[in-house]
UniProtKB/TrEMBL annotation:
The keyword Transferase applies. This is Putative hydroxymethyltransferase. It comes from the Bacteria. Keywords: Methyltransferase, Transferase. The keyword Transferase applies. One of its GO terms (biological process) is methylation.
Length: 143
């Protein structure tokens, strides 16, 4: 959708207020991020090879989070993620953003995870900041 809108408007996009939380693994649990700040945005855009294409590597607390079955068609986050049948969460989708006319992501919004804390939002033990360092080692530029 972003690609079509930016093409029609002849204007690139900046994704704004994307929660920078991530999906923790079983091993990680809530040691870096509280359940209140679990999110898929950070994991989707920055990738997480620890997860790869196996949602069962994710924290049981996340997998067992209840969803509205009428809306999502399944009762839990785990069931929802398994519907993707092999999506590779290890992919760093941020590298594809220029193909969709996106020149920037502004992380965080309100009381969500961002690259640094504002002391009223959650912490992620440096997960997102470490992912940004990884990205900047070999970025893909918008042209």
């Amino acid at each position: 959708m972003v690609k079509q809108v930016t093409k029609a408007l002849l204007t690139p996009a900046m994704l704004w207020q994307i929660p920078g939380g991530h999906m923790p693994t079983v091993e990680e649990g809530v040691s870096k991020i509280s359940a209140a700040h679990f999110a898929s945005g950070g994991t989707f855009f920055m990738g997480d090879a620890r997860i790869g294409s196996d949602p069962d590597t994710l924290s049981l607390q996340l997998l067992n989070t209840a969803l509205n079955s009428a809306t999502y068609g399944v009762p839990t986050v785990g069931d929802f993620l398994r519907k993707d049948k092999g999506y590779d969460w290890g992919q760093m989708q941020a590298l594809n953003l220029p193909d969709f006319n996106v020149f920037s992501i502004l992380w965080g919004g309100g009381s969500t995870i961002s690259i640094t804390t504002i002391h009223s939002n959650g912490e992620d033990g440096g997960w997102l900041a470490d992912k940004m360092v990884e990205y900047y080692a070999a970025p893909r530029y918008f042209r």
